[in-house]
Amino acid sequence: MKLLAIETSAVSASVAIVEDDRVRSLCSVNAGLTHSRTLLPMIDAALQNSETALCDIDCFACAVGPGSFTGIRIGIAAVKGLCDGTGKKAFPVSTLEGLAFNLLGQDVLACAVMDARCRQVYCALFDVHGNDVTRLTDDAALKLDDLGTLLKTYEGRKIVFVGDGAELCEAALGYPAAPPLTRFQSAASVAFAALKHADETPSLDAQALLPVYLRLPQAERELRAKTMRNS
């Protein structure tokens, strides 16, 4: 299967074309530019660099959250457009599961973490053993102290933080962060996560792709708080 994957859930953005177990092309930008400016040129570059025609892509994959509300919507919109234009389907991938696939080849308990501000993180735990990744917990938004309590139940395992919240969690809880080269979101890892589930999870029609938010956007949270104060 030849798959084009998109990852736009955080500050960096990337596009990958993966065929079976080989990354044919990977384009990434982490320059603080909006994803709406960089995503389409990266898709075009990934196709050209791998000498792949869009019609040759069998399926698409997209990180659907948690993460940046705007970034996730941009990525999903792009995949929906690609699906509509080609008649192909797509796999939704948890941003946190994609991060766990960064650590393929190791024998660790991957704690995928994204900074959710206010001493909270979006997080999930995965058992990584060689080329096998097994989910241990659902995606959740937790306070750092609560994450620390959860991790104590896995004492004896080698725990590694992966994701843009890794340094924050390392400083607060003491477990090591993954090295920078394997720490952050990657479309290639999103692709490998999608390929793992290809036999057990059906791909979706474009319109069924939806963002996954673990908490309300800040503007909506502030509006609700203001409404409660005034009631």
Task: Give descriptors for this structure.
231 residues; alpha/beta; Nucleotidyltransferase, domain 5; five-stranded mixed sheet; 8 helices; 10 strands; globular
SSE arrangement, N to C:
EEEHEHEHEEEEHEHHHH
CA radius of gyration:
18 Å
Major β-sheet strand ordering: 3-2-1-4-5
Structural class of the helix and strand makeup? alpha/beta
Mean pLDDT: 92
What gap, in angstroms, lies between the N and C termini? 56 Å
Number of helices: 8
Can you tell me the residue ranges where pLDDT is under 50 for at least 5 consecutive residues? 217-225
**Range of strand content:** 25-35%
CATH class of the largest domain: Alpha Beta
Question: Per the principal axes of the C-alpha atoms, what is the gross shape?
Answer: globular
Give the strand tally.
10
The proportion of residues forming helix, as a percent range, comes to 25-40%
- What is the CATH architecture descriptor of the largest domain? 2-Layer Sandwich
Q: Per CATH, what is the topology of the largest domain?
A: Nucleotidyltransferase, domain 5
Fourth CATH level, the homologous superfamily of the largest domain: ATPase, nucleotide binding domain
Biggest pleated sheet: 5 strands, mixed
Q: How many discrete structural domains?
A: 2
Which SSEs are present, and which pair or pack?
Elements: E1 2-7, E2 13-19, E3 22-29, H1 35-49, E4 59-63, H2 69-86, E5 90-93, H3 95-100, E6 107-115, E7 120-129, E8 132-135, E9 140-143, H4 144-152, E10 159-162, H5 166-173, H6 180-183, H7 187-197, H8 218-230
Parallel strand pairs: 1-4, 4-5, 6-10
Antiparallel strand pairs: 1-2, 2-3, 6-7, 7-8, 7-9
Helix pairs in contact: 1-2
